[in-house]
Amino acid sequence: MRTIRLLAPSRLEMRETDERPAITDSTVRVDIKACGICGSDLALYNGRRDLSGEHYFGHEFSGVITEVGNGANGLKKGMRVASELVKGCGRCWFCRNGMQNYCKSLNDALLPGGFTEQTLVTNTDAYSFLSPIPDELDDITASILEPANCAYHVAMKANIQPGDSVLVIGLGAIGLVAAMILKTMGAGTVIGADRSKLRLEQVRKTGLLDVIDTSEPAWMEQVKEMTAKDGVDIVIEATGAPPVLKDAMAAARTGGKIVVPSVYFGGIDGFEPLPIMRKELTIIGSKGPAPQLKTDGTSAVVEKVVQMKDDLRKLISVYEYKDALQAFADARSGAAIKAVIQFS
Ligand SMILES: [Zn+2]
Ligand SMILES: [Zn+2]
């Protein structure tokens, strides 16, 4: 079966392999149809994250279940599924305190992950990382379920009130999808901001969001004009660049909220935290995917992805497996907002 492996930073290998991990009682086997490249994959690829402790590669996938261990969670052979965290153990300290996103590491749940034609996925009564997907979602769009789950988590952390203004700084997939979800949840003015001309142009073309160029000196005034208060109700800081947190604090209104899904590397020179007190800012972290289930036990994120599928599809660039290296190159350069590699 075909596999893409990261041997070292910037060193991808594509090859055929016979290694096929044996199914166990606590796993299901998924034939991968499509797998997206995440910012965290790029951090490994770019050498900003240490590769040595990683057991899997690729976690934003859709596919078909071909083998089932114990059949927990109603997952059956032949079912179309996509990755997202849907279930933690419910018993550990994190689960009992509303932080199921910390229950178990993906390192222990995926073998070898979505950049291989087949992967095992842990699936027990205590953990699930797969949601069944409905017929109206194609495999490519379904592969965005996991980042959409992360973005949904951001939106939930924002605890939006009707009409709240939102500024999303950093128009990667998480920032963009969070902006789109917040719109559906009743946000008022929603502004996207980025300093990359390429990204701004791409987002303008989709028509999904009004955008502002943060490389322009007057961008902050522009934001304040558009939101008609002393700042924005909710700022999503999704750039991954630590100094931008200062901009987020400046753009937030008195009493405003800042949600941070950014994976930061490094610190901020000359950081002045005074506005946290002066403006009574609330700064909220948002980490990874988390179960977002409706009362009937099905995924609210799947429903949201179905609702937004045509818009979400605009964010995706599809690459055949043979062009996987190009997919990584385009994800790295920003030429693709969400690069998705198609296996079949
Ligand atoms: Zn991801
Ligand atoms: Zn748990």
Describe the structure.
The structure is a single chain. By secondary structure, this protein is an alpha/beta fold. The chain folds into two domains: about 1-145 and about 315-340, Medium-chain alcohol dehydrogenases, catalytic domain (Quinone Oxidoreductase, Chain A, domain 1, Alpha-Beta Complex), CATH 3.90.180; about 150-285, NAD(P)-binding Rossmann-like Domain (Rossmann fold), CATH 3.40.50.720. The protein contains twelve helices and 16 strands. The protein has helices spanning about 40-45, 95, 140, 145-160, 175-185, 195-205, 220-225, 245-250, 275-280, 300-305, 310-315, 325-335; strands at about 1-10, 10-15, 25-35, 60-70, 80-85, 110, 120-125, 125-130, 165-170, 190-195, 210-215, 230-235, 250-260, 280-285, 315-320, 340. β7 (about 120-125) and β8 (about 125-130) form a beta hairpin. The longest helix is centred in the middle third of the chain and has 14 residues, at about 145-160. It starts with a strand and ends with a strand. The chain binds zinc ion (2 copies). One zinc ion (ZN) binds near residues 38, 40, 59 and 146. One zinc ion (ZN) binds near residues 91, 92 and 103. GO terms for molecular function: oxidoreductase activity; zinc ion binding. Keywords: Membrane, Metal-binding, Oxidoreductase, Transmembrane, Transmembrane helix, Zinc.
How would you sum up the global shape?
globular
Helix content: 25-40%
- Assign the CATH class of the largest domain: Alpha Beta
Overall average pLDDT: 96
Strand order in the largest sheet: 11-10-9-12-13-14
In angstroms, what is the radius of gyration? 20 Å
Uncertain residue ranges: none
CATH topology tier name of the largest domain: Quinone Oxidoreductase, Chain A, domain 1
CATH-defined architecture of the largest domain = Alpha-Beta Complex
Termini gap: 12 Å
CATH homologous superfamily designation of the largest domain: Medium-chain alcohol dehydrogenases, catalytic domain
Strand content: 25-35%
List ligands, each type once.
zinc ion
| Total number of helices | 12
What does the main sheet amount to? Answer: 6 strands, parallel
Please tell me the total number of domains: 2
**Derived structural class:** alpha/beta
Secondary structure: number of strands = 16
Q: Can you write the helix and strand succession as a string?
A: EEEHEEHEEEHHEHEHEHEHEHEHHEHE
